[in-house]
Design a protein that fits this description.
Elements lengths: L1 E6 L5 H9 L13 E8 L3 H10 L3 E3 L2 E8 L12 H8 L3 E7 L15 H32 L7 H19 L11 H7 L10 E6 L16 E6 L1 H8 L3 H11 L5 H13 L1 E7 L3 E8 L4 H8 L1 H5 L1 E8 H7 L2 H6 L4 E3 L9 E7 L2
Parallel strand pairs: 1-4, 1-5, 3-9, 5-6, 6-7
Antiparallel strand pairs: 2-4, 8-9, 10-11, 10-12
Helix pairs in contact: 1-7, 4-5
């Protein structure tokens, strides 16, 4: 999972990045130049710790999430669209963490001169929509040229299907509806997979406020969008403390859990992801897949040889495995199931792939 942290200048993107990664990247650097801080973080999961305690392996591998603090968006996309390098970076993300400034600080002036979270949210959304509309209009022009020249040997029906799809995109974008709110068929989603449409990416909106500020009256009407309130500066300061002191400070400020934990949970939900595990005396490993993944997909995530030589999957839920005390006990109680390649993996499954190549 790779997430891009975006927002207007001076919104607190790098502060949030440091809070999520326990990093110390310099904050307060503004400007329009592309700049990216990147960090890979273990996904905290108490189930991994429980499996570690059960199997006592020498190696434990957590699932990973990559955070990218991306500077360069300023709400002023031109008619030529977002610059190539920045667009390429944004297009690679699985989703966005969109930081909206709510905190007041006279030493850190807002780029527009005033604090208005609703305005800033609309500004950044409009920037993503405009960039997508530019891309879509260019594609429609190319399809029209292709149609007039006879399709370059492509099936005319295929060209027509692409044209209909991009007309559908243009209609939504012209009405200022982000593409994450639009439903697509499996065929349409496949056709769009190679296009880095920014307003189609799921988005977690972060209202960056001081710890004493109340929530705002902000509605998020679009699908695949969540909203969360976080005092990013306070969270960054706590994240950089030793573990015992961090627990004490969170208790003092009434923060029940680290922001990283909440972000992971919301990000998994937003991107429709689940975790499954492989566990043995040599290694406990957490894996991330899309909800709806099959046992064959899970095998491919572990190793291509397992996918190619798949025979069956031995499956038991995390809860049953840990409650019973191991695979032998789970088998004895009839909880260890044999599943075929089309089995739909469930969150928390502990899976052993049997294969032969």
């Amino acid at each position: 999972m790779e997430l891009g942290i975006i927002g207007l200048p001076q919104s607190g993107k790098t502060t949030l990045f440091n809070a999520l990664t326990q990093g110390d990247a310099p904050t307060g650097i503004s400007g329009k130049a592309l700049s990216v801080h990147t960090a890979v973080v273990d996904v905290p999961d108490e189930r991994v710790e429980a499996l570690r305690g059960l199997f006592k392996p020498p190696k434990v591998v957590y699932a990973k999430v990559t955070y990218n603090d991306i500077a360069g968006l300023d709400g002023e996309t031109s008619q030529s669209g977002i610059s190539g390098p920045l667009l390429n970076t944004l297009s690679k993300m699985d989703g966005f963490i969109h930081v909206i400034r709510h905190f007041e600080n006279p030493l850190v002036p807002h780029s527009t001169g005033s604090i208005d979270p609703k305005r800033d949210l609309a500004t950044m959304e409009a920037e993503l929509i405009l960039n997508d509309l530019i891309l879509v209009e260019r594609k429609l022009n190319r399809l029209e040229e292709e149609r007039q020249r006879g399709g370059h040997g492509r099936d005319k029906a295929q060209v027509a299907r692409e044209n209909d799809l991009f007309m559908k995109l243009a209609d939504s974008l012209e009405r200022e509806i982000p593409l994450r709110h639009v439903s697509f068929s499996e065929e349409e989603a496949k056709m769009l997979s190679s296009y880095g449409l920014l307003s189609r990416k799921p988005q977690l909106i972060v209202i960056n406020q001081s710890e004493d500020q109340p929530p705002l009256d902000i509605e998020v009407p679009f699908a695949k969008t969540h909203l969360i309130y976080i005092p990013a500066k306070l969270e960054m300061d706590i994240a950089q403390l030793p573990a015992e002191e961090a627990v004490m400070f969170r208790s003092e400020y009434g923060i029940e859990e680290p922001s990283l934990n909440r972000f992971i949970r919301l990000s998994y939900e937003l991107l429709n992801l689940i975790s499954f595990f492989t566990a043995a005396e040599k290694e406990v490993h957490a894996w991330t897949v899309k909800r709806g993944a099959t046992a064959l997909d899970a095998a491919g995530h572990i190793h291509s040889d397992m996918e190619r030589g798949f025979i069956r999957a031995e499956v038991v839920s995390y809860e049953e495995l840990t409650a019973l005390g191991g695979f032998a006990e789970a088998r004895q109680h009839g909880k260890l199931r044999l599943e075929g390649k089309k089995y739909l993996v469930q969150d928390g499954d502990v899976i052993t792939i049997r294969f032969n190549i």
